[in-house]
Design a protein that fits this description.
single chain; about 400 residues; alpha/beta; Rossmann fold; 15 helices; about 10% strand; binds carba-nicotinamide-adenine-dinucleotide
Length: about 400
């Protein structure tokens, strides 16, 4: 996609992105070669969002191009290695932006109990005015849209017919430039209009109705949050959607025409320059919408985020995944997902490189504020609503 007004520069050789790339190649334990890692868009990165941004930080161009961290972060196996205890210790000593454990220990826990009931009580309290929600593909699985990574049913396991060199290529801008057909074919199955919001989407709307929703940051491209009635200004489509489209040189397109091509699975070319046209979905290697960085800086500030609810995401895609680290050190966080994700050890390599605050989830007894509901999103929100006395 051509550099458009709403996107941010990230390819400047002097940028934090370039610096982090250099560090990555010398210090990570990734098993891919440097070249292969690049090809797959797997570079690790710093999340340069700040929980309380200084003016200097505001001016810095945040690192916001889309990357998967699947192969560059420590695997579960690695994290249970002998060094993980040392890392945990390091995290304990150095985490929390140098404020140290004392600061956290001095704070009264905000949750009466670290479970879904405790979260419900907290939501009902006056202390909890601003709930920030982060969503991934899992919230739309019940609507019939497969996620990426679930073994067997996820898109990455079911792309054989597209004849791709590797599954992720279908969402890589470099691949699209030369072969847009697989994306158009896939998009013909995923296009909005075919699917209805789930209970989880309706719960997000309910948070808005109850005047608790600060913002919903979604990685999803299906627009089901707004279809469920959530106000557009309260949704950040971090990875774009099918609402608008441009060609690879940045010329705006008539979205209705584009969607006709998408429906048929036939790549469209720009009438002005002849380049391929793509809906404004953020591909690996592209920049996120500028609104993402702008609102994340504000909404994840301690005074603006009283509770973080993370649902249906593997937290494998940066910079989105790094957002979980930005609420205040004692801000409660609820993860509703089929698997545990985003825990402190999984963010180890980022922390060691100084690219993470070391504030991944800690569901252990030592943890003070994180709550886990292991299961389907719709079941998790039903449980929450039961305690809240809310009807979804
Ligand atoms: P992912 O990497 O596929 O992870 C999905 C996560 O959700 C996994 O941890 C699953 O275990 C979990 N999960 C799956 N089903 C459920 C369920 N019913 N209830 C609870 N948890 C569940 O997807 P991510 O969102 O983490 O990855 C980000 C990518 C996926 C973004 O760039 C999206 O654009 C992209 N994507 C979006 C859609 C969509 O718009 N609906 C669909 C597929 C992929």
């Amino acid at each position: 996609m051509g550099e458009a007004e709403e996107t941010e520069e990230t390819h400047d050789a002097e940028s934090p992105a370039a610096a982090s790339e250099k560090t990555t190649t010398t210090t990570t334990t990734t098993t891919t070669t440097e070249d292969e890692g690049r090809r797959r868009g797997n570079e690790t990165s710093s999340s340069s969002l700040s929980s309380s941004p200084s003016e200097e930080e505001e001016e810095r161009s945040p690192e916001t191009s889309l990357r998967s961290e699947t192969e560059s972060s420590g695997s579960e196996e690695e994290t249970s290695s002998s060094s993980s205890e040392g890392v945990r210790e390091l995290l304990r000593r150095l985490a929390i932006d140098g404020e140290g454990e004392k600061t956290l220990a001095a704070k009264q826990p905000r949750l009466k109990t670290r479970d879904v009931k405790g979260i419900a009580e907290y939501i009902e309290s006056d202390e909890c005015k601003n709930v920030v929600v982060m969503c991934g593909a899992g919230v739309s699985v019940a609507a019939g849209i497969p996620d990426f990574r679930t073994p067997g049913t996820g898109l990455y396991d079911n792309l054989a017919e597209y004849d791709l060199p590797y599954p992720q290529a279908v969402f890589e801008i470099g691949f699209f430039e030369s072969n847009p057909e697989p994306f158009y074919l896939l998009a013909s199955h995923l296009q909005p209009g075919k699917f209805e919001p789930t209970k989880t989407h309706k719960f997000i709307k309910l948070l808005e109705t109850k005047k608790k929703l600060r913002r919903c940051f979604t990685q999803n491209i299906d627009s089901l949050e707004t279809k469920a009635g959530v106000s557009e200004e309260l949704v950040v489509a971090a990875h774009g959607n099918f609402d608008t489209a441009r060609c690879l040189k940045g010329h705006s397109q008539d979205i209705e025409k584009v969607m006709e091509h998408v429906a048929k699975g036939e790549p469209m070319r720009c009438e002005t320059c002849g380049e391929y046209v793509k809906p404004d979905i953020v591909f690996f290697g592209e920049n996120l919408p500028i609104r993402f960085g702008q609102l994340a800086r504000i909404d994840f500030n301690p005074e603006n985020c009283d509770l973080l609810i993370v649902m249906g995401t593997s937290l494998q895609v940066q910079p989105f995944a790094g957002l979980i680290e930005y609420p205040d050190i004692d801000c409660p966080r609820l993860l509703i997902n089929r698997e545990k994700v985003g825990e402190v050890p999984s963010r180890r390599s980022f922390f060691e490189m100084g690219m993470s605050k070391g504030r991944g989830f800690d569901f252990s007894e030592e943890g003070k504020r994180d709550v886990l509901f292991l299961g389907d999103c719709d079941d998790g929100v039903s449980e929450l609503c039961k305690h809240l006395g809310w009807e979804v």
